[in-house]
Amino acid sequence: QVQLVESGGGLVQPGGSLTLSCAASGFPFSRYYMWWVRQAPGKEMEWVSRLNIDGSRLLYADPVKGRFTISRDNAKNIVYLKMDNLKIEDTAVYSCAKARVPDSGSAYDFWGKGTQVTVSS
Question: Tell me: the pLDDT tens digits for 76-87?
Fold first, then answer.
């Protein structure tokens, strides 16, 4: 049974930092591209960042480029999202997502329940 469990969210002031973690189980983690996605109230889910199976190729959505860093630990089955210089518009529920098929970054098909990130002064 595939499980993705996020943690590390919270309340932070603008300009602050948070690091999110996502623990994966139930599938061969090291063979799957992983994403971080987010959904703000009243908005559609949007992708934030993606990395390939060994973490050597990273992609970022324009709103977070230069501020967020995605990484993974294949020995621990964990994917991370380090978020710096947070802005109010980063407020959302953040979830990690797995690729639909192994060794491919074309689409994700499963995501966790997420962790709330609130940026407010």
Answer: 999 999 999 999
Please give the Cα distance from 28 to 41 (Å, whole number). Answer: 32
What beta strand segments (E) does 62-107 contain? 68-73, 78-83, 92-99
Q: Which two tokens stand for residue 46?
A: 């949007």
d(C-alpha 46, C-alpha 100), whole Å: 17
pLDDT in tens, 61-74: 999 999 999 999 99
Identity of residue 60: Y
Strand order in the sheet with 3-7: 3-7, 18-25, 78-83, 68-73
- The DSSP annotation for 25-38 comes to ESS-GGGS-EEEEE
Number of other CB atoms surrounding residue 83 within 10 Å: 25
Q: Binning pLDDT at 50, 70 and 90, where does residue 105 land?
A: confident
Angle at 61 (CA atoms; ends 103, 86), nearest 5 degrees: 125
What is the distance, to the nearest Å, from the Cα of residue 88 to the centroid of all Cα atoms in its chain?
Answer: 18
